[in-house]
Automatic annotation (TrEMBL):
It comes from Clathrospora elynae. Heterodimer. The active site is at 177 (glycyl thioester intermediate). This is Ubiquitin-activating enzyme E1-like. GO terms for molecular function: ATP binding; metal ion binding; SUMO activating enzyme activity; transferase activity. Residues 547-587 are annotated as: Disordered. Residues 444-524 form the Ubiquitin/SUMO-activating enzyme ubiquitin-like domain.
């Protein structure tokens, strides 16, 4: 019996053949990627390319099941290829231990794929692949999970929303004054412990902390100046590290002196409870009865004396480590710096105790070490089941794209706590004002040694594409040309470093009928000597910019930078989406099922017609699986 008999029966002859001939790209071989690669291999996708820049970590093993203990520190992409390859020897897997943003993965390379799968964990890489798929006109299946939530989005140039069509939330940050002067929640005190106190004593200065938002500094200039002075004073105390007085000096500064100064600013506390400074000697006395194992009790909330004991002890542990690094720095190594790491118990204990002491001062609820570890490490637990379900939904959506049934493809959500675990929404059309997909993509063949910017401006843009006088040409934010900036016109592409795979964007600034922005990707090309040294390889028709303002997006896709993708619990809208009433089922011929099987399945198909839920039927007799997720 042919190995792929059941796959063929389940998928239908046409789709099965397409899958076999497909060349697909999977970016990211982590939590979703491992599951997805297994699914792709077992579904019989003919050629799968896997890109991942990372190596395997111990913490990946609980859910990234293509990896085992012996693979730690090895390339994720290469090990994933090795492990998944064994599931189906007729599938070819190519692995790249590299960043997808590298130049070798250019538009021409993306164009060689039938479909691309994103299994990434960050906005930047996701946005990059989104743009490359638009430029290469390849469909993209975007996915992400966070805890129990998952999401799959089908993106096709010109037909659906792209990843950038709905704005994504940037990582959470807090105004400096909230963290340094007026905390009101445990997270404010945790960020203070981690990004201010720990950083000032053992690391680099707080200015570099991503959690701190300095945009309101100008409005609070006086207080910001005071806070800077406090930080400098703390750095002076850092000089006495190693002395037995060090814990007392730090404690008195941040939990007493600075608090008394804040408390004296009466205006600040008219509507809030003023902070209450702590006294070192009092707590030192109470802490005498605290047991030595308190720091190991991570599920209980420690009282003030217990937090004090852990504060002093972790400060001592960290100071010793710092001194050791300083000694080796003097021996010629890098300057001593410790960084916060949720898995480094000394740094975690210090942040937990400092945050809780500060919470106590401001009348904020204290938290357990376990909770603070999650919050300080921005940890949302990754759940293997969510990854597995999301990866399978990616493949089901890919089937629709490959059947050329984009109208049936859906944005799919996984949520917990709602009536339906899986819900879906129709794909939306592109947002005409999207800066990523509301533009035209084109390639430009160029002999970069001979072609000048003037060839692009005069010959291609004005003569061939009909641009007027008001337009500008940029590479990222660098202005190369506009009507007032013509200094580069006589320079060659090479002189302007416009090498292969560079993107050049042309912005039409005409008052009337302006064209949409065009993104050209430069492709190095050889021309005969007399020919123009650059040309458009294909005819390019550029649409006019839309006139109406963008319609309000309802913002179902929100992302929080650390969270892998466009997910927010409240927004997945589980119960109202994903109605499947009236969904048409695959016909027998479409499915390509053999006659006998169709007869056998007649009853099941009838059942399917009645059902309005996702159905997966496994027939134990002949192994046929009918999957319907319309
Ligand atoms: N620019 C990039 N190029 C290639 N691979 C990338 C890029 N950015 C992220 N990745 C990969 O995407 C994968 C995402 O997987 P996942 O979200 O499970 O993260 P993880 O690092 O494996 O786990 P965790 O972050 O939970 O410890 C990772 O393996 C990561 O290396
Ligand atoms: Zn878009």
């Amino acid at each position: 019996m042919a190995r792929d008999k059941f796959a063929r029966q389940s998928l239908g002859g046409t789709l099965h053949q397409r899958i076999k001939e497909a060349r697909v790209l999977m970016v990211g071989a982590g939590g979703i990627g491992c599951e997805l690669l297994k699914n792709l291999v077992l579904s019989g996708f003919g050629e799968i390319h896997v890109v991942d820049l990372d190596t395997i970590d111990l913490s990946n093993l609980n859910r990234q099941f293509l990896f085992r203990n012996e693979h730690i520190k090895k390339s994720k992409a290469l090990v994933a290829k090795e492990s998944a390859g064994r599931f189906n020897p007729s599938v070819t897997i190519e692995a790249y231990h590299d960043n997808i943003k590298e130049g070798q993965f250019n538009v021409a390379w993306f164009q060689t794929f039938s479909i691309v799968f994103n299994a990434l964990d960050n906005l930047d890489a996701r946005r990059h692949v989104n743009k490359m798929c638009l430029a290469a006109s390849v469909p993209l299946i975007e996915s992400g999970t966070t805890g129990f939530n998952g999401q799959v989005q089908v993106i096709k140039k010109g037909e659906t929303e792209c990843y950038d069509c709905t704005p994504k939330e940037t990582p959470k940050s807090f105004p400096v004054c909230t963290i340094r002067s007026t905390p009101s929640q445990p997270i404010h005190c945790i960020v203070w412990g981690k990004s201010y106190l720990f950083a000032e004593i053992f690391g680099t200065s707080e200015d570099e902390a991503p959690e701190l938002d300095h945009s309101e500094d100008a409005d609070n200039a006086n207080e910001v100046a005071n806070l800077q002075e406090e930080a400098h004073a703390l750095q002076r105390i850092r000089g006495s590290m190693g002395s037995p007085l060090f814990p007392r000096l730090v404690f008195d500064k941040v939990f007493n002196e600075d608090i008394e100064r804040l408390r004296s600013m009466e205006d600040m506390w008219k509507t809030k409870r003023p902070p209450e400074a702590l006294v070192y000697d009092q707590l030192a006395h109470q802490a005498l009865s605290v047991g030595p194992t308190i720091a190991q009790q991570d599920q209980v909330v420690w009282d003030v004396a217990e937090n004090f004991a852990v504060f002093v002890d972790s400060l001592r542990r960290l100071s010793n480590r710092f001194e050791e690094t300083r000694a080796s720095a003097e021996a010629g190594n890098a300057a001593p710096i410790l960084s916060f790491d949720k898995d480094d118990v000394d740094t975690l204990d210090f942040v937990v105790a400092s945050a809780n002491l500060r919470s106590h001062i401001f009348g904020i609820e204290m938290r357990s070490k376990f909770d603070i570890k999650q919050m300080a490490g921005n940890i949302i637990p990754a759940i293997a089941t969510t990854n597995a379900m999301t990866a399978s939904l990616c493949v089901l959506q890919a089937f629709k794209v490959m059947r050329e049934q984009l109208d049936k493809a859906k944005m799919v959500f996984l949520t917990r706590g709602t009536e339906r675990v899986i819900s879906s929404e129709s794909l939306r059309p592109p947002n005409p004002n999207c800066a990523t997909c509301g533009v035209a993509y084109a390639t430009l063949h160029v002999d970069t040694k001979r072609a000048k910017l003037s060839d692009l401006v005069e010959y291609v843009l004005k003569e061939q594409l009909g641009y007027g006088e008001d337009f500008s040409v940029k590479r990222h934010a660098d202005l190369l040309y506009d009507v007032d900036e013509d200094v580069h016109l006589n320079k060659t592409f090479e002189e302007l470093s416009l090498k292969a795979d560079t993107f050049i964007t042309v912005f039409d600034e005409a008052d009337e009928n302006a064209k949409v922005d065009v993104v050209f990707s430069v492709i190095e090309h050889e021309f005969t000597e007399n020919a123009k040294p650059l040309r458009l390889p294909e005819e390019l028709k550029i649409a006019a910019k839309p006139k109406a303002p963008a319609s309000e997006t309802t913002g179902h896709a929100t992302t929080n930078g650390t969270v892998p993708n466009a997910i927010s619990t409240g927004a997945t809208n589980g119960t109202t989406n994903g109605t499947t009433n009236g969904a048409t089922k695959r016909t027998a011929s479409d499915a390509g099922l053999e006659d006998a099987i169709v007869r056998k399945k007649g009853k099941i198909m009838e059942e399917l017609q009645k059902s309005d839920d996702i159905v997966i039927i496994d027939d134990a007799n002949d192994g046929v699986i009918l999957i319907d997720d319309d």
